[in-house]
Design brief:
The chain is of the alpha/beta class and about 375 residues long. It has ten helices and 19 strands. Helix 8 packs across helix 9.
């Protein structure tokens, strides 16, 4: 077991919390957010949507089943940091190959344990997301606050995590070819498409529309990703060009980008949705899905009028838009993550819906 040094976090509101460090022993400034998932810390650590964010885990014990080679959502984690109540560095899972601390250390990501995560979570809920700094215990609070005040959170998260060249994920006996626009795509999305008979070509977020059309896809998928969707102008323009030409399915940021491209507005939420326990109502069927979520921005429901998009799903906790569609233009999207299997299979039908749209489009071609 590694020897852990004392560390502390300083929030933008001046609150300090002392604990033990794990992972990389470096200073970092990020946005602080919380996640209510009981399991899945490896998927959270390796989800590119957490770029520039330090995540408070509300479940009290983290690290106890280690890290496994098969469960990554991206090969190189870019999360800003981890804040946990109790960290376990002796995993009991027979599948584990490394500890959480080892993975964080390898990728220059700091973590801290032994802090009051319930108090921090309540603070974020009451005051909203804010900047946080993890540093050594001797760093003066005034110095940390000054550093946070001078630091501007980056707006190039999608450019940093998107692939630089196209790559392929093939499956046996494919029936469809999907081009996935990588804004920070999770690998389980690609696995979900492969499992349904799709060869997937993953392309950088700034790939021109004509280049995508030259690949002759049956459908286009827009992925999740970090940051403000309004900063991702290449994908917004892409949707405007491809709208009506091919079936397009968006998840998370993909949902927001489709909405913006059609003329809707997005806004930053007070503290966002992160966790595997959000009830969402499907307005088309009346069914309730238990969903997995990870986003700071949402689509303004009042701005959907005149866009051609109609709400298809609604969050039962705060009435935010969780899905939208324009059947005429072969567009549909959801804010939550059907590939994360939170229900555990409540939302898998969305991938089947995409398959159905591509099949119909092939028939009508």
């Amino acid at each position: 077991m590694e020897k852990r040094l004392m560390r502390k976090i300083v929030l933008e509101n001046g609150q300090e919390f002392y604990g033990e460090g794990f992972g990389a022993q470096c200073d970092a400034i990020n946005e602080i957010v919380f996640n209510t998932s009981m399991v899945g810390y490896q998927e959270i650590v390796s989800d590119p949507s957490y770029t520039n964010q330090m995540v408070v885990m509300t479940y009290p014990l983290i690290g106890n089943y280690g890290i496994t080679d098969e469960d990554y959502e991206t090969k190189i984690p870019t999360i800003g940091g981890m804040i946990v109540r109790e960290y376990n560095d002796s995993p009991s899972n027979f599948r584990y190959t490394k500890t959480l601390s080892e993975i964080l250390e390898e990728n220059g990501i700091p973590g801290i344990s032994g802090v009051d995560t319930r108090k921090i979570t309540r603070m974020i809920r009451n005051e909203g997301s804010q900047k946080v700094m993890i540093t050594g215990p001797d760093t003066p609070k005034e110095e940390a606050l000054a550093a946070m005040g001078a630091y501007e959170l980056p707006k190039d998260g999608v450019a940093r995590v998107s692939c630089k060249k196209k790559w392929y994920a093939r499956t046996a006996n494919p029936a469809y070819h999907v081009v996935a626009v990588d804004c920070g795509i999770k690998l389980n999305i690609i696995r979900s498409l492969n499992k349904r008979g799709c060869n997937v070509t993953v392309v950088p977020f700034d790939t021109p529309a004509q280049e995508i059309l030259n690949l002759k896809p049956d459908g286009v998928f827009l992925s999740n990703g970090p940051g403000d969707p309004e900063d991702v102008t290449p994908v917004i323009e892409l949707v405007r060009v491809l709208r009506g030409k091919l079936p397009i399915f968006g998840i998370c940021m993909g949902h927001q980008l489709i909405s913006i491209a059609c003329g809707a507005k997005t806004y930053k939420m007070k503290f966002g949705h992160r966790g595997g326990n959000h009830p969402v109502k499907n307005l088309l069927t009346g069914k309730i899905e238990i969903t997995s979520q990870n986003h700071s921005f949402a689509v303004d429901k009042d701005s959907l009028g005149g866009t051609g998009l109609v709400p298809t799903h609604i969050n039962l906790l705060d009435d935010t838009v969780e899905g939208a569609a324009c059947p005429k233009d072969k567009l549909f999207s959801v804010q939550y993550h059907p590939e994360s299997a939170p229900g555990p299979q409540d939302s898998g039908y969305l991938f089947d819906q995409f398959i159905g749209m591509m099949k119909e489009n092939q028939r009508n071609a």
